[in-house]
């Protein structure tokens, strides 16, 4: 009577060894849950440990920028040079202005620091809805509320 042969034992799988990157890491925002993901340089995509969404990594050398969504206050990352960014959470289209295209002023009522497009004549505070004049007349508006 023939003796059945046992299958060859499979060797244990080798542990995963990531490609050598000299410890260099980069960051991007998860396309699913918007958490910040850290990944080794050279990766082409990253799987989020929280929501399991796979986010594509931009090509090497792509300069990224960040802004906070005006609708839901979610941190958005985008390729530098884009003129607008649509939020994947609330679908608000946000203007993406370069640093030299924006200016800052304190709200004339609550003193909150406001950012506005360079050249604007006034800016409305999202906290107290006060409209602060900017430019030559900004100092007179702030003087009115500083006393």
TrEMBL record:
Which InterPro entries does the UniProt record give? LSD1-like, Multihaem_cyt_sf, Znf_LSD1
Q: Domain of life of the organism in this record? A: Eukaryota
Its cellular-component GO annotations read: nucleus
Q: Which SUPFAM superfamilies match?
A: Multiheme cytochromes
Zinc finger LSD1-type domain location, by residue?
30-54, 69-93, 107-131
Compartment list: Nucleus
Region named Disordered: 1-20
Q: Which controlled-vocabulary keywords does the entry list?
A: Nucleus
Query: Which PANTHER family does this one have?
Result: PROTEIN LOL1, PROTEIN LSD1
- Protein's name according to its UniProt entry: Protein LOL1
């Amino acid at each position: 009577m023939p003796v059945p042969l046992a299958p060859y034992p499979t060797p244990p799988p080798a542990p995963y060894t990531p490609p050598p990157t000299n410890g260099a890491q980069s960051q991007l925002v998860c396309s699913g849950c918007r958490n910040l993901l850290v990944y080794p340089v050279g990766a082409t995509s990253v799987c989020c440990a929280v929501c399991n969404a796979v986010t594509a990594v931009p090509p090497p050398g792509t300069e990224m920028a960040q802004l906070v969504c005006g609708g839901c206050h979610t941190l958005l990352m985008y390729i530098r040079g884009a003129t607008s960014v649509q939020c994947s959470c609330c679908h608000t289209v946000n203007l993406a202005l370069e640093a030299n295209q924006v200016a800052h002023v304190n709200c004339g009522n609550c003193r909150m620091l406001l950012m506005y497009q360079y050249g604007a004549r006034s800016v409305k505070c999202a906290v107290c809805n006060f409209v602060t004049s900017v430019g030559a007349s900004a100092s007179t508006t702030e003087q009115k509320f500083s006393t």
